[in-house]
C-alpha cells in the first residue's frame, strides 16, 4: 500500500564510505525527486528525474549521483561520505515534472555519518 | 497565536484557538507558493497552495494569505486541534524552463490541549 518507499530508514556509516539509498514509488508517476533536510528542518531539493531523464540538478557535490533504472525507482548513491552529509533524505514523486503541489513524499532516510 | 518567522521558530497555541504561521519569501517572480505540514518522523505533506495572482485562498480550516508587496505569506489554521501539531513550512516555486523550488525555514506548532 505504501505509495513512496525508501530503504533503509536509518543509515549509520563512517566518513569516507560509499552508500546508497533506494526509492520506489507505486503510483505510476513519471517524475521523482530527492530532497535533503538538515538538522534545522531546512529542506532543499537536490535532483529531479522525469521519465528517467535528469531535469533538476541543484548545486550538489559530485559525490552525489542519482540513478533512475526505471520510472518507478530513483536511487541516490553517495561517495566518500562526509560529516556534513548527515541529514534526512526524502524521496518524492509526482505525475508531471515540477508538480510540487501534487508530490507524494516518502518517509525519509536518516543518514548519520560518524 | 502568531509567529514572527525566524525569530520564533516555535508557536504554542491552545486547542481551539486560531494559529497564524508566517513566511517571508525571497523572489518576487515566484509563480506560486505552497504550505507543507511535516509531522514527526514523516515526510512533508501538502496543505494548500496559492498562485501569485491571488491574495487569499481558503481550504478546510486553513487559509493562506499572500502579500506580494512585502513578499510575505501566512497560513491561518482555524480551531487548532492536537493533530495540527507539526512543523509547517512554505515553499516558493518559480516555473518556466527550469523549475526552481525554495523552501522557507519551518515553524513548529505545538497545540496545548
Please provide a written account of the structure:
The complex is a heterodimer of chains A (about 110) and B (about 110). Chain A has about 110 residues and is mainly β. Chain A has no helices and eleven strands. In chain A, the strands form two sheets. In chain A, strands 2, 4, 5, 6, 9, 10 and 11 form a seven-stranded mixed sheet that branches. In chain A, a hairpin with a 2-residue loop joins strand 5 and strand 6. The mean pLDDT of chain A is about 95. Helix content of chain B is about 0%, strand content about 50%. In chain B, strands 1, 3, 4, 8, 9 and 10 form a six-stranded mixed sheet that branches. Chain B is globular. The N terminus of chain B is likely disordered. At the A-B interface, strand 5 of A face strand 3, strand 4 and strand 8 of B.
- Helix/strand/pairing class of chain A, anyone? mainly beta
Count up the helices of chain A. Answer: 0
What is the radius of gyration of chain A computed over CA atoms, rounded to a whole number of angstroms? 13 Å
Order of helices and strands of chain B: EEEEEEEEEE
Binned, the helix content of chain B reads under 10%
Report low-confidence residues of chain B grouped into runs of 5 or more.
Answer: 2-8
> Pairing-aware structural class of the strands and helices of chain B?
mainly beta
Radius of gyration of chain B: 14 Å
Q: Main beta sheet of chain A, described?
A: 7 strands, mixed
Amino acid at each position: 500500500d505504501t505509495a513512496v518507499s525508501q530503504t533503509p530508514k536509518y543509515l549509520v556509516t563512517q566518513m569516507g564510505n560509499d552508500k546508497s539509498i533506494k526509492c520506489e514509488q507505486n503510483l505510476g508517476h513519471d517524475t521523482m525527486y530527492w530532497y535533503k533536510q538538515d538538522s534545522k528542518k531546512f529542506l532543499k531539493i537536490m535532483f529531479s528525474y522525469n521519465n528517467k531523464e535528469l531535469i533538476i540538478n541543484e548545486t550538489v557535490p559530485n559525490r552525489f549521483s542519482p540513478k533512475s533504472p526505471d520510472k518507478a525507482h530513483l536511487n541516490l548513491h553517495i561517495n566518500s561520505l562526509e560529516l556534513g552529509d548527515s541529514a534526512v533524505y526524502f524521496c518524492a514523486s509526482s505525475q508531471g515534472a515540477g508538480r510540487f503541489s501534487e508530490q507524494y513524499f516518502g518517509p525519509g532516510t536518516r543518514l548519520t555519518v560518524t | 497565536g502568531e509567529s514572527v518567522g525566524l525569530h520564533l521558530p516555535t508557536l504554542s497555541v491552545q486547542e481551539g484557538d486560531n494559529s497564524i504561521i508566517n513566511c517571508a519569501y525571497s523572489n518576487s517572480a515566484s509563480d506560486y507558493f505552497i504550505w507543507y505540514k511535516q509531522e514527526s518522523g514523516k515526510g512533508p505533506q501538502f496543505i494548500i497552495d496559492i498562485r501569485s495572482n491571488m491574495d487569499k485562498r481558503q481550504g478546510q480550516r486553513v487559509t493562506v494569505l499572500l502579500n506580494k508587496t512585502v513578499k510575505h505569506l501566512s497560513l491561518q489554521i482555524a480551531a487548532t486541534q492536537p493533530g495540527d501539531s507539526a512543523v509547517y513550512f512554505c515553499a516558493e516555486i518559480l516555473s518556466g524552463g527550469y523549475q526552481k523550488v525554495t523552501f522557507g525555514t519551518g515553524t513548529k506548532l505545538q497545540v496545548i490541549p
